[in-house]
Fold these 2 entries.
Entry 1:
Amino acid sequence: MNVVYFAHSYRKEDNFLVKFFGELIQSQGLVLTIDPPSQKVNAARLERHLNCTDGMVAVLSWREDGVSDHIYFEISLCLRARKPLLVFIEDNIDTKKFPSRILQRRFSRGYLPREIKEHKHAIQSLKSYMGATPLPKYQPSQKKRACLLIGLSILHKSARETVIGIIKKRNYSVLQINETTDHIFQKQNVNEIISLANLAICFVDSKSYVSNYLLGAIRIAMVPTILLTTNSSYSYDLNIPKEYQPRLIKTEDLFLLKKIINTEINLYEDNIVDIEDKETLESYIKLLFKFSSASGKYDSGTYNIFARELNMRDNYVISGGQTGSVGPVSYTHLRAHET
C-alpha cells in the first residue's frame, strides 16, 4: 500500500479542506502520513518523515498574508528527493514559484463537490505512477544507526569532544571523514559512509572543501541533516522559515551546546503519524477543529495531544484552560510550527 506525506494548512478556516482532501485521498487507497502541529520543528524531522513515504500530496490554500512558506518548503524537499508529487492549489493563488512540470490541480472552496472527478483523477494519476507495490530501500544497513559529523574542525577541542560525546550517549555510531582528504569525490569509501548515515550534523561555517562537498552530497542523498552555525551574523534566507535553517550555537557554552543539539535530535526522532482508516482521519479532523487557531500557531503540548490521541488513543481533557492527557503513557512535549 502506498503511503503519502500529506502537507496542509493547520489554520482553523482550512480544516474543511483537510477533511475533504484527506477523505478523497483515502478513498483512492492511499495511507496518509502527517506531521502533527507542534511548537518546534526542524528540517531533519521533515526529511526523515519524507524518506518514509512513497510520495507527497500538498494542499496550498489562500490566506491574506500569503501562502505558507512551510508548505513551500515541504514541497521543495519533495522535489529534492525526486519523489512523486501532487499539489492541489486554490484557484486565487499565483503560482510563479512552481515549476510547470509538477502534477497539480486547481480547486475552488465553494465548488469542491463539483470538482471531485478531476481531483480523483489527479490522485489516481499519482497512485498509478507510484505503482501498486513501491520498491523498498535496496539492501538497508544491518549496522547500528549512525550519525555523520561534518565541519567539526571549526570547533575547539572541548566542543568537538562534547558533540561526539552527545552522539555516542544517544547510541549512534560516529561517522567522520578527514577534512584534509584529497579528491574526496573519487573515494569509494566516502559514498559508503554517506549511505550508512541515518542522520548528519553539519557546522556550516567550515570553509573546508571536504565539508562543503559532504554537505552537498548528503543534501542530494536526502540524509536528514541538522544544520548549525557559530556565526551570529549568519545570512538567513527570508523566503525560508528560520526553523529550517542553521541553529545558532555558542561553542564557549558547552551546557547550551548540549541542550541545542539534544533538542534538535529529539525533533528529528519525533514520531510521525499514519492515518490508515477513516476513523483515524475523523479523529484527526476533530482535533484540528478543537485546537487549531486562526494564525496556525500552537501552544506547548499540542504535538503531544495529536500524537498520543492518534497513535495511542489516550483521552485528552481540557480543564480550567489547561490541556492534559489521561492514560498510562501520557506526558507533555513542547513542539510546533505554523503552517
Entry 2:
Amino acid sequence: MFCKLLIHNKLLKLKNFHRLYWGGVFFLIIWGILLGGESILLASSEGITFKSSLVWGIEGDFSFEGGILSGCQINEKGEIETGDNAQIGTYESISYTTEGIVQNITVSWEFEGEVKLEVSTDGGNNYVSVINGVPLESDFVKGDKIRWKALLSTKSKLKKVKIDYQDSLGVITGFGNPSLSGFKFRRLIYIKSDAKEDLFHYQVKIKVGESKEAEDYDVECEGNIQNDFLDVRFTCADGRTLLSHYLEKVEGTSPKRVATFWVKIPQLPPQGLNIYIYYGNPQAESLSLPEEVFDFFDDFSTDSLDLEKWDLSLEEGGNWNLVESGLELNGAKIISKNYQIKNGIIEYQAKAISGAEIRAVIRGDSEESLLENFNQIAYSSNFEGVQHCIAIGDIVKVNQTKGIILNTTYAYRIILNGTNLTFQRYSKDFKNKEAEVAYNDEERLKKGHIGLKTGINCRAIFEWIRVRKYSSFVIEIDRELTKEKEAEAIDIAEFEKVKLAENGNLVLEEQEGSYASSLFPLPFKVRIFNSFWKTIPEDAKVMLDVSMDGGKSYAMDCIKENFYYASKNDFNSGNGLKFRLRFLNEDRKAEVEEVSIDYRLGSITIIWPNGGEILEAGKKVKINWSAIEYEEDYPLRLEYSLDGGNNYELISDEVYNTGSFWWVVPHKVTSSGLVRISDKFAPDEVFDTSDEEFSIASGGVHLEEKLEEEELHKEGVGFKEEKVKELSEEEKKEILKRISYLEQHKRKFRQKSYEVLIKIGDTYSSDPEESQRACFKDGDVVVVREEGHIWGRYERENFLIIKMYLKPQEVKKLVQPKESLTGEVDKEGKPKREILRRRKYRLDLYKIGLKGRKLSELSPEERKFLIEALEGKIFSSEILEEK
C-alpha cells in the first residue's frame, strides 16, 4: 500500500510518479490531525495535500483576483467599504477551482461593522451562509469551484477573507497557526445565546479555573497552566483562527485560582457557538490585547496621555497627571477624539480623592461637550441631590440618594440601549451593586463622544475605561456542556523562528529556524518513503528530515525524490509520521510552499500463479507480481514450495522488480504448489504467497478450463451505433431509466454485495502483441472487492466502480484471467492455451445505453453524470458480458 502526503500551494507532480502508482488496492486513512491546533478528520487514499489557505485581502488577492462590487467600493487601503447612507453592499469573488469535491469549508474574515459572508462550492450556483470561523460540513451543494459573497451593512469594512477547506481527494488547506505553537492541551467552550439575530464583535466574559478545586469558573485547566495564566489562547471552532482576548484579573491562591478573560467573538449566531481554549505552554508570552477586544479601551498605563484617543481641556486652575494607578483629573476633562457610541456598555473604575465627585460623559458632541449644554452625563458624588444621577447638560433628570465615600474605589457601568440610559455603581471589580438609575432621553443625542471629568478642586483617579457591546439577550457560557467535554492532549505544528507569509508560505523570521509538523498517525508501519519539497528560490537552503516512528528518530537531510527503505536501515519503520524543515541562516529570504512525503507499506502481491492453475512440468512460465511501491531496481527474492508451504526452495535470491520472471517448472508432480516473493532485505516481514495451491502435472496433460459459465447478456433496446459527442437530455433520461430497471431487477438472493472496478480507456504496451494480450481495455473488469472497500484516487479517476450482488463462484469467475490460444498443440494434438493477467469480462455498455461509445469517449461532465447515476445502486452480473 502507498500513501502520499503533500504540503504545498500547488499540487505536486513527481517526475517519476508513473512508477509510484500501484495497480492493486488503495487504502483509505481516517484519523484526527492536530495541525496548528485544529482537529481535522482526514480521508486519504493516494495522498494528503496541505495547501496554504485561500486568501483575499488588502495585502494582495492571492487566491481570488477580482470580483463584482455592488453598493460598495474599494478604498485607498484596498478594503471593501460601504458609506453612511448605504443599505446592503455586496462583493462577489471569482471562482477558485479545487482538485476534488469540497467536503467541508471554513471561512473567517476580518471586518468592521457588520459583514456577513456566503460561500458556494459549485461556482456560485448555490450559496449558503457561513459563521465566521465555524466549519461548514453539511447542508451545502458540494462542488469543486469555491466562490464567496460578502454582504456589508452601513458603514462597514471588509479587510481580509481566509478560506480553508478539505476535499474528496484529501486536500487540506493551512499550515497551522504560529501563535499556538507549543501548546499541549485544549478544551471546547460552549457559548449559549437566546438572541434573535447575529451579534458582531461581541465581548464574552470567560472565567477560567486553574483546576477542579477552584470555584465559580466556566472552564478549568486541570492544573496545566502558568501561575499568571499567560499561556491561554482562544480560537474559533475551527481550532486555528485566533480570537482576541483580554486577561482582566487573576484571583485566589493555587490550586484554586480563577482568571477572568474577555474574548471578542467576531460573529455570534442566535443558536450560540463553540470555541476552543488552548493552554499548557510554559514558554508562552501574554497575548492579552484589550484594545483589540473592546470597542474602546484605555488603562492610562503609558507615560503620557494618548492624544490620538482623547481631546483634553482644563478649567482655570485645573490640572491632570498620570499616576501609578491611572489618570488623575482635577478641573479637567477628556473627550474621545474620534470614537462615538450609539448603543453599548461603558464601564470604568475610579475613586474620588478630594471633592467627592466623579463624572462621565455618556454621549457628548465634540464641540458642545465643552459647554455641556446637551451632553448626557453620569454623575457620582456625595453632594446632596446629585449622589447618583443622570443629567442632561446641567439639569439632573433622575437621582438616587446613595453617595460615594472618598478614597474608595468604585466600578461604574452605563448601559445605552437606544434612548434608554441606565447608570449603575458597584463596589470595586463589580462585586456588589450599590446604586442604579435609569432615564429615557428621547430628545437629546442618539450618538456621541464619551469622556471623563471632574470639577475644579475635585480630584479623582480613573483607573481604566472601556466600551463593549450591549445585548438585552442572555449570552453566557454553558457550564454544563463545557464540563462534559474532556480536555484534549494535542500535538500541533511547531514554529521556531519561522512564520507564515501573507501568501501562506513558510518563511524564516530570524536567522536559523525550523518548522516541525504535528504527528500524523498512519494505519500501517511504513517501510518505504520518498520526499520532495519546493522552495522559493528553487535553490534555497532548506533541509528536510523525516521520521516514521513519531519523532524518536529522523532520516536526516533527505534528498529530493530519493527512495528510503527501512529494510536497508535508512530509517526506523513505524506508523507515526513527523517531518521537520530546517531553514539555514544563509537564506533569510527562503520560502517553502510545498512538501511531499510519499509513504508506503512496502507490499508485494503475487498475480500468477495465484492458485488453481495446472502447470506443465518442465515448461517455462512467467511468474507475475505487483510490487510497484518499490523501485524497479530493488532486489526481491523468489521461492517455491511443493508441500503447501512447509518447505521452500529458492528460485532466485535476487530479481529486479520488473513485475515478472521466467521460471522453469520443476519436474515434480504436486497438487500443493505455492510461489512466494519477498523483500530481499526483509523476507520475513514483507512477502506474499499464492492465495491457493496450484498443481504441477507431467507433460501431455490437457489443461482445460473448469469454470461454470453463466449467460450474462440479454437483449435490450440500445442506441444507434454511431458515436455521440455529447449526450442529449433524452439520452440521459434513457440511461437513468435503464440503470433504474437493471437495479430494480437485481437478484436479491445473492449472498454478498461486491464492488467491481471497470477500466476507463485503453492501455497499451510498446509490444503490439503484448498490448493485445495483456493490457486492459475500455470497459474491462479489473478487480472485484467486497462492498465497503476503500478505493484510492487513481481508481476513482480512472475507473468506474459498480456495486453488484454476486455468488462466490461468480466472483471467482470474474477475477479469473482470460485464456488465449497459443497457436501450438500438445502431444495429443490439442490446442495449447496461455494464461494472461487480463480478465475475461467487461461492462455491457449496450445494457446501460452507451452502445457505440467507449467510456473513455465520455466528457468529464458525462462521466460525472454516469457515476452519479450508478452511485448507491446494486446490480446483478447481467450488467457484464464475456469478451
